[in-house]
Structure formats: C-alpha cells, structure tokens
C-alpha cells in the first residue's frame, strides 16, 4: 500500500507541474471571464486555444481526483498502522520532546 501511495504522489506531482506550466504559458488575463464553452472556428476545427482550454480542464480535474484518491490511500495506511501498532511515516502524530 505504501508503494501505491508513493506512485500516486509522484503522478500527482507530475500532473501539478504540467498543469502549472500550462496555466503560466497560456494565461491571457481573462481569468474571470466565465467563458467555459469550447469555441470553434468557422470550418469547425478546434483552435490551439480550444485545445489548451480542454487540456487545462482535464489536468485540473485529474489533479482533484488524484488528491481524493491519495487521501483515501493515506487514511487506509494510517488505519492499518494503528491496527498493528506500527508508526506510519504518513501520520502526523508528534513525538514527545526528549527529557532533559
């Protein structure tokens, strides 16, 4: 299960980097325009902007889904480690301070 978690983290990091680069490269300053529909040219062929808009939507949705899956896997790892009494590297429990 830990291996699946590490693979999912790597894929999510990759999607986040590609998504960020895509947004920075294609950003045009019309962020709040509300134009969510795909536009086509007169002959019906999608333009480069339409393709980039669709890729941004797909990458954003896949990043969101990956984060949900990673959260579920992380919770399973934490529950399994608590069941067996093993400390999980994912859990956020703090260790007590050393005595002086």
Structure description:
The chain is mainly alpha-helical. It is about 60% helix and about 0% strand. It has two helices and no strands. It has helices at about 1-25, 50-85. Helix 1 runs antiparallel to helix 2. It starts with a helix and ends in a 16-residue tail after the last helix. The mean pLDDT is about 80.
What keyword list fits this structure?
mainly alpha, 2 helices, 100 residues
Quaternary structure type: single chain
Describe the biggest sheet? none
In the predicted model, the low-confidence regions spanning at least 5 consecutive residues are none
Count of discrete alpha- or pi-helical segments spanning 4 or more residues: 2
Percent strand? under 5%
Q: Would you list the SSEs in sequence order as H and E?
A: HH
Gist of the model:
The chain is an all-alpha fold and 100 residues long.
Task: Record the SSE blueprint.
Elements: H1 2-26, H2 48-84
Helix pairs in contact: 1-2
């Amino acid at each position: 299960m830990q291996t699946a978690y590490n693979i999912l983290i790597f894929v999510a990091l990759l999607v986040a980097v590609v998504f960020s680069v895509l947004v920075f490269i294609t950003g045009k300053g019309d962020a709040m325009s509300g134009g969510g529909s795909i536009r086509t040219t007169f002959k019906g062929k999608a333009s480069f902007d339409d393709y980039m808009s669709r890729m941004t939507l797909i990458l954003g949705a896949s990043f969101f889904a990956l984060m949900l899956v990673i959260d579920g896997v992380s919770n399973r790892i934490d529950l399994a480690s608590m069941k067996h009494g093993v400390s999980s590297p994912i859990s956020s429990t703090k260790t007590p301070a050393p005595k002086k």
